[in-house]
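Two records follow; treat each independently.
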Amino acid sequence: MAMGLMSQLLLLASSLSRSNQFCDAGTSSKLLIKGGTVVNAHHQQVADVYVEDGIIVSIKSTIMVGDEVTVIDATGKFVMPGGTDPHTHLEFEFMGTETVDGFFGGQAAALAGGTTMHIDFVIPRKGSLTAGIEAYEKKARKSCMDYGFHIAITKWDETMSREMELMVKEKGTNSFKFFMAYKGALMINDEFLLEGFKKCKSLGALAMVHAENGDAVDEGQKKNYRTWNNCFICFYEPHQLEGEATARAIHLADFVNTPLYVVHVMSIDAMEEIAKARKSGQRVIGEPVASGLALDESWLWHPDFETAAKQVMSPPIRKRGHDKALQASLSTGVLVPFTTLQLVGTDRCAFNSTQKALGIDDFQKIPNGVNGIEERMHLVWDIMVESVQISVTDYVRLTSTNGSDADIIILNPNSSFEITAKSHHSKLDTNGKVEVTIAGGRVVWENNELKVAHGTGRYIKMPPFSYLSDGIDKKGCLLSKLPPSPSGESQIQHLKSF
């Protein structure tokens, strides 16, 4: 795959809103997928798959059906679970503008690329989690595929603590994201991060971090404000700052003894901190994103502002070498008995060229974010499976979840295609194509045609105390070994005097 074409992953056209790309959703309740190689995270076999009323009811070597059943021939192709993108920002108000994709358009793009479930980030409204999730519930009414919510925590007080409990018990969320970057906007300090981690543990929720040293990044931005020459981002967000913040978050999570999820891992530095923690037995999940696996920072040095600005995200795309290391961290082998990073997201946060141009005179005002919700499944296949870095079953493990719901893709490993801005959906030459996407038992993508409808998506509640919490207290907690702090004294203040 030519890297020049791969760079066009970051074309920000949102032309899925064109009406001629959508058809009425299919209504067949009975479906037979015949003769494909059925793959899950642990096994693969040639078999037929029978779906009825949105549920996979049978997988056998041969299944006979009547004329009322729609039959799809999958001979020579892979039949897999639909993809899950764990990191998206649809209809997200950020840096004075809003991402170009609404829930319907962004989800339709996802379905065209084989992703049938995504988890979006709810941002508080005026400091309120309740107001934030209500706003996102309204945005998501037009959804055409399954979705869930993470919740961002951007400050800390007793009200926030109580609202976190409400989100878990009444709204079906089980994950909270803490920003260690974006000083003056979303960033919280270590004292509040520690309090948030403690609350996550008590609720059985997963703590997530955007790991960068926000103070140092802010200082770097100010220093380099006058020196920008289209190679801006690599100066004020160096990879060492991502590694430092990742290590700090890991140590604080270990101190509290709570699981930790590090979003958009972009550097070797962060990856190595996660590997060290996992090797020691700490429960840390690392999430690389499609752009970090596929690209390097050379595009940030492009003399054309529009081309360079398309690549701007945070943490930034790194120098060549980080991409290869991130790829290797997803595979296992004799020398690497476990994967350092566990799943691939996108950090879908797409802005068009007009929006990116808000920063043409001040690089700090370029809206941070790239696309990828449609490209992720194809990119991971092309980069990781075609290069024999991972197996087909590993591919399912990295991109999908397993279940009995009929969210299925049919991928043709022998098909090559070019995605273009005109037909989109971005631009790259790639091997392996998702030819059919089935969501909830309905064919929603076939013959390069989308068949989706507003309001057919479902909100998926996620319970607390997942497998990551199982038995975690057996390890013991550094925090529990300290004597109780005096009444009214914060934990940080108490530690300083201990």
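The next record belongs to a different protein.
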Amino acid sequence: MSTELSESQDLNGLEQATDGTSRLTDICSGTVGNSMASIAEYYAGKSVLITGATGFMGKVLVEKLLRSCPEVKALYILVRPKAGQSMQQRVSDMMKCKLFDRVREDNPDFYQKIIPISSELTQPGLAISPEDVEKLSACINIVFHCAATIRFDEPLKHALQLNVIATQQLLSLAHQMHHLEAFIHISTAYANCNRKHIDEVIYPPPVEPKKLIESLEWMDDGIVRDITPRLISDRPNTYTYTKALAEYVVQQEQHRLNIGIIRPSIVGASWQEPFPGWIDNFNGPSGVFIAAGKGILRTMRANNDAVADLIPVDVVINLTLAAGWYTAVHRPKTALVYNCTTGGINPFHWGEIEHHVMSSFKRNPLEQAFRRPNANITSNYLINQYWILVSHKFPALIYDLILRLTGQKPQMMRIFNRLHKAIGLLEYFSSQDWEWNSENMSMLMSQLTPEDRKVETSGTSWSASVSSSSPTSVRPAP
């Protein structure tokens, strides 16, 4: 899941972390024990394979490695060809992103370490050529599997292909890598959202993945669509369902590969790195926040007292790289799971979002706003429906009528319908609480020297905490 907070400069004022962050910071900055190299030193000379590198988290992972581990040997990234745009062009466009400005200043030739590999997750063998398979098998030291579909309403067959089958294919490739030291899989804290208390363990899957894949192969898409609600049972969508299956698939390789699994909650804008407030999508709550800032969204159904478990993307990435280091160096006998969440240490509630986001947008209005921001969060279904009618549908009808009378194409009702659909998909997560265990996070912190744990957050190379205690960019500075 991903969220965003800012198109305006003011959201930099919402991204500050609170007390829990400063005491659990810089896990990637120093020595572990007295004889272990720093994490940055560990990645020196390593060849890294990253899936999903053109996505939100993948970009931040690439940037962090290039900036904070300047001696990393090469980053191989799987890139899906797109019609009308070559693989090289896609990577070149990504490198031009503002996200990479700090890397560009330090090393204008940083892009030479990026080696794109043509791949398609929906194809057998990930559609990687034999030559590239041989190249990857000979040099890769660490794999970061970030690629996935995060759409909540993805058809089950497609979600299964992207989140489960593609993971199986990547694991098969990993078995061919002669120098592989760690395989890090990015999951989600909501993979087991049918449970209220979630430990850092792999729970039994809702169904044996192999049997499900074999069963769905012969089924018509219409049949699969009809049986999907019964298959996913007490999970809210195909995303959480298939991510749970993917965790089980990864766990099955724990005796042959060194595996770590990262479970972030709702990933939001960067807290500090490479600069505050960076985000590149409107997924999940992201679009909702922006819609509120533009005055389109006036009501949302959520439990004001429920914890909004939002986590900055740089916190997740720092944890991911730290887990990669720990997995490779210590080689745990079983796959370690890291719940990367905030609610247990530094809870932040949906009711607080209403105040902080609205006050932020009012002080720094977004361009081309529909009307003045003024959103209300309520848990009452009838009240929410009333405000949808009064504050959403009626204004949309009037606005579209004006557009028609002036010879323009009506659009507001279509925008509101899309907004209501997005909010509906989020209601499951905004109306209840979960409790995540974070013992492995504490264990990871215990590997730091006392000096490292005292380092204050300073915006330097490894500044963002990986402790899961930092709130995302929705809380004002203390």
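Discussion point: The CA atoms of residues 185 and 210 lie 19 Å apart. How would you locate this feature using only the token line?
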